[in-house]
Amino acid sequence: MKHSIRVIALFSLLIISAVASAGVPGPIKVSANGRYFVDREGKPFFWLGDTAWPLFSRYSKSQAEVYLRNRGEKGFTVIQGVLAWVLPGGHDDVNDVPPSSDEPQPNVFGERPWLNNNPATPNDTYFKHVDYLVEFANRQGLILAMLPTWGHFVNQTKTLNMQNARAYGRWLGNRYKDAPNIIWVNGGDRVPVGFEDVYRQLARGLREGDGGAHLITFHICGWHSTSQFFHREDWLDFNMIQTWTDWPKIYPAVSADRQPTPIKPVVLAEGAYEDGPEYPLGPITPLIVRRQAWWTVLAGGFHTYGQNQMWRMGKDWEASFDTPGAAHVCKMKEIFTAHEWWDLIPDQGLFAAGVSSESTLNAAMRSVNGDYAIIYLSSQCRVFVHLDKILTKSVKVTWIDPATGERRDAGSFATGNLTGALFPPAQVQLFTTPGHWEDAVLVLEGF
């Protein structure tokens, strides 16, 4: 009996190991309708990002392994990091730049990404460490959204310029053309005004180097979107938004970026970081983290989380891998991926009353077929919901605590549909956030 148990346990471990080492089924592409991402088999890919800007320069090999393994196990799918990073601790004050920021930071082995501080001559030794992290992340099922440079080296020092940007991009694209888990992120926390052609040259180089194998986007600075600058350019595969401290503006920002043509996916690449001390609209509690994530996805976009102490690598930063917000955004992904989330469309018309606004906005999506809906209540509140939006005869409603995943039956109701009536009556039902929950999710499933 004990022998059989050991065999079963060993077999289970082998299955887990095989799944973990299977890697990302990439490269990731944009869906045919332009709304979401798909893997190489055409299956929908749910972007849930985390922010580790100095991953390639300041993490030791062991630190990177622990971090990437942690994020893969939690359920994150994308990690955002910078190849040419600016300063320890994320110092990035453009009005007071110390001399040491003239060159990208060396990695833990003392190697810098560019020889003689020239992007046209990348340092192969530096990129061997990057190679390892790309492969290790792939084994954890993680996409690396890699920024070739922080925008500091374009807009401030002008180290990356019209003379070398295309060559650097071409070199990077060629080096990683066969990696299944790469997305290129142009920019780097800057508006491109005055430097548009440098960023275009970098994008063209990446395209030439990898033959178009990987998606390209642009990381913008606070309260801007790439759609303002590059939306119709053929190298920009999807838009990125940064709201930084203005987290109540997430829903309208994502909604706006879903409108321009051609249609492109939208990613909130940088919101307010959990536990961040510098926000006028702080503190950034786990509740605020949840609101940002739920608003992003319910507006039709994709979300990247960030933890202040972790990305800055502050004191005891490794203890911040398991903060509540990280678990809560992964719970959000778990709730969505239990359904055909790619079939959902934003629909604030589900609310008959109580939608609220800004920092206490409630948001909703329903399936195109009208057979289910997901509603987020961002505070303790009361809402009236149009059950007749569910195009079945009856609907089962379930409460979910977005912080814990706890589920409670909220009842089954008639929708008013399929009764033979020429004009089905509006069926409206009152729902109130359960006591002691800060926020809540309603799942409506037709039957």
Summarize the helices and strands and which ones pair or pack.
Layout: H1 2-20, E1 29-30, E2 37-38, E3 44-45, E4 48-51, H2 55-58, H3 61-74, E5 78-82, H4 124-139, E6 143-147, H5 152-156, H6 165-175, E7 182-187, H7 196-210, E8 216-219, E9 224-225, E10 239-242, H8 250-257, E11 266-270, H9 286-298, E12 302-305, H10 308-312, H11 324-337, E13 344-346, E14 351-353, E15 363-367, E16 372-377, E17 382-386, E18 394-400, E19 407-414, E20 428-432, E21 440-446
Parallel strand pairs: 4-5, 4-12, 5-6, 6-7, 7-8, 10-11, 11-12
Antiparallel strand pairs: 1-2, 2-3, 9-10, 13-15, 14-17, 15-16, 16-21, 17-20, 18-19, 18-21
Helix pairs in contact: 3-4, 6-7, 9-11
Task: Summarize the structure in words.
There is one protein chain. The chain is an alpha/beta fold and 447 residues long. It folds into two domains: 23-91 and 98-337, Alpha-Beta Barrel (TIM Barrel), CATH 3.20.20; 343-446, Immunoglobulin-like (Sandwich). The protein contains eleven helices and 21 strands. The chain has helices at 2-20, 55-58, 61-74, 124-139, 152-156, 165-175, 196-210, 250-257, 286-298, 308-312, 324-337; strands spanning 29-30, 37-38, 44-45, 48-51, 78-82, 143-147, 182-187, 216-219, 224-225, 239-242, 266-270, 302-305, 344-346, 351-353, 363-367, 372-377, 382-386, 394-400, 407-414, 428-432, 440-446. Strands 8-7-6-5-4-12-11-10-9 form a nine-stranded mixed beta sheet. The chain has a six-stranded antiparallel beta sheet with strand order 13-15-16-21-18-19, covered by helices on one side. It has a three-stranded antiparallel beta sheet with strand order 1-2-3, with no helix packed on it. β18 (394-400) and β19 form a beta hairpin. α9 (286-298) packs parallel to α11 (324-337). The longest helix is centred in the first third of the chain and has 19 residues, at 2-20. The protein is elongated, with a radius of gyration of 23 Å. 45% of the residues are buried. Mean pLDDT is 93; it is low at 1-20 and 93-99.
